[in-house]
């Protein structure tokens, strides 16, 4: 697609807002819609155009990017009342960057294909920091030619932009990614609970362990937050729980038991059972392990 | 300690042999003992001196390094028949780099202290590759002054050499490290089983996931072996199982349930139940997940 292509952007949350900003600053004409209009204000100040509905955003764009919350939200934005599908022109492309069910994205892709529109599933990993710094990993499924045409746009948003297979493949790989994030967090919380109660210096312990065979992104990035008792969300527990349900449903369809992922879900649920727990960051799983160990978190 | 200090080295297995080699090439006079004398041959060719018993190695050395298999082996080497303790001179230092129980190393340190000998517990992480390339992470517990005196020697063996606290602290941190290695492996095996059955390109999936928030040493280093069906040991399942028993015993003494570690132990046990399984590398946990998913490994 040419540099001058017109982009529509739906979903201006913690991820979408900085991502839309990168596209705007890269010079793409951008029209935007979000459930909460105030979230668009900084983008409108930078030259984006507000549209009142998904259908209005979709009109006259070459590429529509959606990054909302869950499967139902993507279905609503595309095929609900004033949905984008009604006004997407044949030959245009939709890139859905929301984390949703692989089977659902395949159904949506088929429905859009009937009107000559290509849907790519392109969920991301790297969190809010990755969105702000344009260092996301973007894993895309769907038509390879369409992917190559939108790749220059996606490369404004992420450092690693990969086509991983046919429709649904991006979502399947994202489901795998969430398994890793969740299970790695169990290890971090168990190891740091032992280290803490054994009165090791937690900061030094994390630095030392992160350099060895036990190292992980979770340990290096969320371990220090645990050491500093900072449970504020980079990624909320209620959102990883949503994603893990997708991982389990996907594995269920494939006939694969996931006992580690199941354990992570239960430990996250124990944190959700506490007031405000669902809105804490995933590192708050430490509370579940500490509670098991007899230290009731307030 | 001066450069000319005399070092004794006990245990020339997959880790000890290359480590002793580094010390020899760094110019330290080195006497060695191992249960299997043939393992010493390459070192003797390079100038090391063979001794027939631990007691003989310990005579006249300033520093004795031990890296054997398990708690009982360290106890035997130090205090068994012809054990090193009988001939260690007052003022000398023992650095035990075996992974053993934190409580056991504290007892050994106390016994050696009675004869004026300092014991540091200094287990390592980084595997056989780390031993060969001298890139190990070494986590030491015990007297801080003694640690500073032997630090130059340890820095010939590892890239990150850290004093983490009083006697036993090195072993406690190693117990935490093994929790991370084991639990991270669950995530890797669950994620890759989903990716494989969903017919994603496994090599590309690993590269993509390793760059994101699900990344870990286990995924980056052992994931490709799983993709290549290479289950040969860098670190054998029977050895991590030994280490995880130490992790669980340590956590038990601290009153901390470790459900994720327990799950890893059970999955490793499922692999051990297969002929030859105990001698495979830790990445062979993939067999347990695949068997759960109905793909019986031969």
Structural commentary:
Helices cover 50% and strands 13% of the residues of chain A. In chain A, helix 4 links the parallel strand 4 and strand 5. The first copy, chain A, has helices spanning 16-25, 41-45, 54-58, 71-79, 102-113, 127-133, 144-154, 169-197, 202-210, 217-227, 237-254, 259-272, 285-292, and strands at 7-10, 30-33, 49-50, 63-66, 93-96, 118-121, 124-125, 136-141, 158-165. Chain A is elongated. Chain A is built from 13 helices and nine strands. Chain A has two domains: 7-165, Rossmann fold (3-Layer(aba) Sandwich), CATH 3.40.50.720; 172-292, N-(1-d-carboxylethyl)-l-norvaline Dehydrogenase, domain 2. Chains A and B meet through strand 9, helix 8, helix 9, helix 10 and helix 11 of A and strand 9, helix 8, helix 9, helix 10 and helix 11 of B.
Task: Summarize it.
2 copies of one chain form a homodimer. The first copy, chain A, has 298 residues and is α/β, with parallel strands linked by helices. The first copy, chain A, folds into 2 domains: 7-165, NAD(P)-binding Rossmann-like Domain (Rossmann fold, 3-Layer(aba) Sandwich); 172-292, Orthogonal Bundle (N-(1-d-carboxylethyl)-l-norvaline Dehydrogenase, domain 2).
């Amino acid at each position: 697609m040419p540099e001058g292509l017109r982009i529509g952007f739906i979903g201006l949350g913690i991820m979408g807002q900085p991502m839309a900003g990168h596209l705007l600053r890269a010079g793409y004409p951008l029209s935007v819609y979000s459930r909460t209009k105030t979230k668009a204000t900084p983008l409108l100040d930078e030259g984006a155009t507000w549209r009142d509905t998904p259908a209005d955003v979709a009109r006259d764009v070459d590429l529509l990017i959606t990054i909302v919350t869950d499967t139902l939200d993507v279905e609503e934005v595309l095929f609900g009342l004033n949905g984008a599908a009604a006004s997407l022109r044949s030959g245009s492309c939709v890139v859905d960057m929301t984390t949703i069910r692989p089977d659902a994205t395949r159904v949506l892709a088929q429905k859009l294909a009937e009107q000559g529109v290509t849907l790519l599933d392109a969920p991301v990993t790297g969190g809010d920091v990755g969105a702000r710094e344009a260092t996301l990993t973007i894993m895309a499924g769907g038509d390879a030619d369409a992917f190559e045409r939108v790749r220059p746009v996606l490369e404004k948003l992420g450092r690693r932009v990969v086509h991983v297979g046919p429709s649904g493949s991006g979502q399947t790989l994202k489901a795998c990614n969430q398994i890793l994030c969740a299970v790695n967090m169990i290890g971090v919380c168990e190891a740091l609970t032992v280290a803490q109660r054994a009165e090791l210096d937690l900061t030094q312990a994390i630095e030392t362990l992160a350099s060895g065979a036990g190292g992980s992104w979770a340990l290096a990035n969320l371990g220090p937050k645990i050491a500093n008792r900072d449970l504020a969300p980079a990624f909320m527990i209620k959102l990883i729980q949503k994603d893990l349900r997708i991982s389990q449903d996907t594995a269920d369809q494939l006939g694969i038991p996931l006992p580690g992922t199941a354990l992570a879900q239960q430990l996250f649920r124990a944190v959700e059972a506490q007031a405000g727990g669902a809105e804490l960051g995933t590192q708050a799983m430490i509370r579940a392990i500490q509670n098991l160990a007899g230290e009731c978190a307030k």
